[in-house]
Design a protein that fits this description.
Layout: H1 2-15, E1 50-51, E2 58-59, E3 76-83, H2 86-89, H3 100-117, E4 126-133, H4 135-139, E5 144-151, E6 180-185, E7 191-197, E8 205-212, H5 222-241, E9 253-259, H6 262-267, E10 271-278
Length: 304
């Protein structure tokens, strides 16, 4: 833009010696009455809107595709929109995976999701994704980040296009809360299927709480991850049953851990969902109880 103005100024100087007369009412100053164009702005997303497309961690900005959350089918819902600032905004490209900038943005996302849902988002039938502008939008000046909730049809993370907002899903009757399950295993300590169940109806699993691992590098060894999850969830279930320590002691119950994803871990979400499980011998298959086991300690749950 400055180069264009300079060329205009030189043309005016070059024309002056030729003796060309100026029209009446023209002062010859080409630089004092020309307003500049407004600086181009990249679109910024809105919170509280939904999109029919699947979750995508990068987006150029097709925000015109937003739909009404309550009445139209969608797959993602924006719960918060923030902005990258300072050195993070001065980068030539969006922050890399695992960077402090992404972790800070995702921490804000988690806080906002808790407020939006009305409780700890990890205890709801949702996932929470961080969306950043793609390289093209970033080059165009976009510095926003978006926090998108993905609404699942059940506690096993099965995605479904749905209508209705996740807002307040953990308030009142808590329609999005993870509660009880019917769990099936292969007889060798591996879960093959879970189905949501009403806690007042026959089931064999109950959500006990969330275990958050300490900050640190992603544990690449599968056995190390399994040990970390099992030890963490044993403590959560022990407290749920009413024990003051971290060891769960019961002739009837065990526990199950669900979570630990590398991408989520690198964003700062090192959580595991922890469930108390009713066993039938060495398997959960066939075991059915009714009601909650919270506070039961070593007592026998009510059989279905």
């Amino acid at each position: 833009m400055r180069r264009w103005w300079a060329l205009v100024a030189m043309a005016a100087v070059a024309l002056a010696p030729g003796g060309c007369a100026r029209p009446a009412g023209v002062d010859g100053d080409l630089t004092n009455g020309w307003p500049a164009f407004a600086r181009a702005q990249t679109p910024i997303p809105d919170a509280g809107v939904c999109y029919p497309r699947e979750y995508d961690p990068t987006w150029y900005g097709d925000f015109d595709s937003a739909v009404d959350c309550k009445s139209e089918t969608h797959q993602t819902e924006t719960v918060f929109v923030g902005a990258l600032t300072g050195a993070d905004a001065d980068r030539t490209a969006p922050p890399l995976a695992g960077s402090a900038a992404r972790k800070a943005a995702y921490t804000r996302c988690q806080q906002a999701a808790n407020d939006y849902l009305g409780g700890d988002w990890q205890s709801a039938k949702v996932d929470l994704g961080l969306v950043l502008p793609d390289d093209k939008a970033w080059t165009g000046g976009a510095r926003w980040y978006r926090c998108d909730a993905i609404h699942f049809q059940d506690s096993d993370y099965n995605t479904v296009a749905t209508s209705g907002s996740v807002k307040d899903g953990l308030r009142g009757s808590r329609p999005l809360a993870v509660t009880c399950l019917t769990v099936t295993d292969d007889g060798k300590n591996a879960v093959t299927k879970t189905d949501d169940a009403d806690c007042d109806k026959p089931h064999n699993g109950e959500f006990a709480g969330i275990y958050q691992a300490a900050d640190g590098a992603w544990p690449a060894d599968e056995n190390a991850r399994r040990k970390l999850a099992n030890n963490g969830c044993e403590a959560i279930v022990a407290h749920f049953l009413g024990y003051s320590g971290d060891q769960a002691i019961s002739n009837y119950l065990g526990w199950m851990a669900q979570g630990f994803n590398e991408d989520q871990w690198n964003l700062g979400d090192r959580s595991e969902r922890c469930f108390a499980l009713a066993f039938n011998g060495k398997s959960v298959n066939g075991a059915r109880i009714i009601g909650s086991v919270k506070g039961l300690r070593g007592g026998a749950p009510r059989k279905a």
